[in-house]
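EI: anyone free to look at a 173-residue chain?
SC: sure, send it
EI:
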Amino acid sequence: MILVTPGDAPSNLSSAIRALFTTAIFAAQERVWIASPYFLPDHQSRQALITAKKRGIEVHILTCGPRNDKKLVYYASVELYGYLLPAGIKISEHQPSMLHAKCLLVDDKWVSTGSVNFDPRSFFHNDELDISTAESQMVQHIEQLFHTGFERSKLVSMTDWQTRPLCQRIVDI
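SC: here you go
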């Protein structure tokens, strides 16, 4: 079975895709892995991830490193790490090139992939499309994509975040 979730006609108050992602995060029993080149979780999404982590769920984000096509988005994303890292959420920045995968893996049972970045623009503005399934071959394929991505990434530590260059912190403001 495949669930197609269009993001057509989202509004500032309503997003079917964000509702799907949030529900999936709250339903997780073991892990939530997210891949998104533009990772800018809004307050509600950050709280969902932090709540999942507090419940003992492994939360791991795979996103772009410094080499990407939107420097300001990268700096804004890095600023938000300050909410997630103290909660124990793992953040891996893909090296050395840009990552463009957009996936959500929940436990070893469910995946969602498509055009949606984990950011308010994708949730509330763009016409996006995601396909979700519990089909085991697809779940295994996406899980392998994550493993490959994590191997090619740098895990960001709290120390890394706290000691990032001053010029990045100024841009973050």
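EI: Helices lie at 16-27, 43-54, 71-84, 120-124, 136-151, 158-162, 166-172.
SC: 👍
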